[in-house]
Amino acid sequence: MAVTVSIPTILRTHTGGEKSVEASGKTVAEVIDDIESRHSGLKARLVKDEKLHRFVNVYVNDEDVRFAGGLDAEVSDGDTVTILPAVAGGAR
Amino acid sequence: MFTVLRIRRDLVDAIVAHARRDHPDEACGVIAGPDDGSDRPERFVPMVNAARSPTFYEFDSGDLLKLYREMDANDETPVVIYHSHTATEAYPSRTDIKLAQEPFAHYVLVSTRDPEQHEFRSYRIVDGVVTEEPVEVVESYMFANTGSDDVPDA
């Protein structure tokens, strides 16, 4: 299962500046593990305690995986996985 | 790194108006600009604060994806990321610093705690380090410096 993964600016230090990388896997977790095997350090920026970081958004095509099984969300051949850090903050 | 935010007056006015309109909740948004190193904020994109809170803001995740796809298609980058503080000063909170994840953006903070006078300040936030920068408000970018050999205006 080959998918294209779009990498946000802040994580491109892990991909040699590449905006997107190819990866394989049947779920988001497998895709992340596959990228990690070539771009070490990326996984720790996305996953903590076997869950996606609260302030990292991952989408399969147009769907936020938080509403589709999180790391277990399925991906299919030709899908685009987009990683975007949340834009958030506040006085609290 | 010494930086300055050079920004058109109408964009400053648009940010402040958005912050006033959403007060007492925090307002947030982006000013996109060309991804060519010019560091020029151009396209005002107010965002919905999905948290609808006086002490927290977060772009809606669907809107966030749409925004980044749009910017990608237009060869744009988020030159300015702004939000308001409605009861405190226009300085990044610990939460703001922890969650800042666009190292090339100017983080603009507007305080609306005073109903008459707003504060409008800009920062770089990189790896947990906050650096305030001057804000230069211009009427137009037409006469902006275009290179390092330009003589700054007196």
Automatic annotation (TrEMBL), chain A:
Protein name stated in the entry: Molybdopterin synthase sulfur carrier subunit
Pfam families in the cross-refs: ThiS
InterPro entries: Beta-grasp_dom_sf (IPR012675), MoaD_arc-typ (IPR010038), Mopterin_synth/thiamin_S_b (IPR016155), Sulfur_Carrier/Prot_Modifier (IPR052045), ThiS/MoaD-like (IPR003749)
Source organism of the structure: Prauserella muralis
Lineage, top ranks: Bacteria, Bacillati, Actinomycetota, Actinomycetes, Pseudonocardiales
CDD domains: Ubl_CysO_like
Automatic annotation (TrEMBL), chain B:
CDD domains given in the database record: MPN_like
Pfam families: Prok-JAB
One Gene Ontology molecular-function label: metalloexopeptidase activity
InterPro entries associated with the record: JAB_dom_prok, JAMM/MPN+_dom, MPN, VirAsm_ModProt
PANTHER family found in the cross-reference section: CYSO-CYSTEINE PEPTIDASE (PTHR34858)
Entry protein name: Peptidase
Species in which this protein is naturally found: Prauserella muralis
